[in-house]
Design goal:
Layout lengths: L5 E7 L2 E8 L4 E5 L10 H7 L4 E5 L16 H14 L5 E6 L1 H12 L4 E7 L9 H12 L3 H16 L3 H16 L1 H7 L4 H7 L12 E6 L4 H13 L3 E6 L6 H4 L1 H13 L2
Parallel strand pairs: 3-4, 3-5, 5-6, 6-7, 7-8
Antiparallel strand pairs: 1-2, 2-4
Helix pairs in contact: 1-11, 2-3, 5-6
Keywords: Hydrolase
InterPro entries: AB_hydrolase_1 (IPR000073), AB_hydrolase_fold (IPR029058), AB_hydrolase_sf (IPR050266), Epox_hydrolase-like (IPR000639)
Pfam families: Abhydrolase_1 (PF00561)
């Protein structure tokens, strides 16, 4: 990235937040996805910083922000975001968010619609679909896999490659490494009581969301991800859904220029 970013930190009541900042103009707050930190937005910011004031924070427990030993929840992340916006005295913002960040952005917009001018969500989390619980159960099992069975799988991997049975095993082992690298994401998604997670899901609240919303979703993503985006689009009053052909969950990596144009058009239309 050729753009010179300002890296900053601020001490908030819930902990220290780290963020990247560049540009001038209408304020865009970028909330990163489940298995990422704020740096995932840099390719997109490169296309937007000349017209917008871009902020890309790391959420509480992620990246270079503080990782306090506390009970994590979506509402805790919403409060962390509120403290951040208050501390920087940002009166009106657009929230641009991916997956887990989308859940937090929509939850924040429900609480503070006067500050949020609009929301752009890429493949958001935060609503329950048919395959939702099954997928979370699989992730919970994978991250909780005891060391001995895990080591056995690692030992058997070369044999599986010889027998050409390795693809599923390699994907599972790779996914487990990803999960272990983002413990806060695991806590938020599936390492809490089911009743607590359910209480923070948004399908019953989206009807109350009055801010303009743009949802961008790859058509080749998982059926579960596509269903979540469609639920947001159906239930939020001012939501528009864009489905992009030939794309899965790699929109930011593959199409940053196209996504930037969608965001620019959305903001200018408000």
């Amino acid at each position: 990235m050729d753009v010179t970013l300002r890296n900053s930190r601020i001490k908030l009541p819930l902990g220290q937040m780290f963020w990247r900042e560049v540009g001038r103009g209408p304020i865009l707050i970028f909330l990163h996805g489940t298995w990422n930190d704020g740096s995932q937005w840099l390719p997109l910011i490169e296309h937007l910083h000349q017209d917008y004031h871009c902020f890309a924070p790391d959420l509480l427990g992620f990246g270079d922000s503080e990782k306090p030993n506390i009970h994590y929840s979506i509402q805790l992340e919403v409060e962390f975001l509120r403290q951040y916006l208050d501390a920087l005295r940002l009166p009106e913002v657009y929230l641009i968010a991916h997956s887990l960040g989308g859940w937090i952005a929509a939850s924040y917009a429900l609480k503070d619609s006067d500050r949020v001018r609009g929301v752009v969500l890429l493949a958001p989390e935060g609503v329950q679909t048919e395959g939702h619980q099954k997928n979370l159960s699989w992730l919970k099992w994978l991250v909780g896999l005891p060391k001995i069975p895990y080591r056995i799988l690692r030992v058997l991997l070369p044999l599986a490659r010889l027998l050409k049975f390795n693809k599923g095993m390699e994907q599972a082992l790779e996914k487990r490494e990803q999960l272990l690298a983002f413990p806060t994401a695991c806590k938020l998604l599936f390492q809490r009581r089911g009743v607590e997670i359910k209480a923070e899901l948004l399908e019953d609240s989206l009807n109350d969301l009055t801010v303009p919303m743009l949802i961008i979703q790859g058509k080749n993503d998982t059926p579960d991800a596509i269903d979540r985006s469609k639920i947001y689009a159906k239930k939020a009053a001012k939501a528009q859904l864009i489905l992009i052909d030939g794309m899965g969950n790699n929109l930011l990596e593959e199409l940053p220029d196209a996504i930037a144009k969608y965001i620019n058009d959305f903001v200018r239309s408000q």
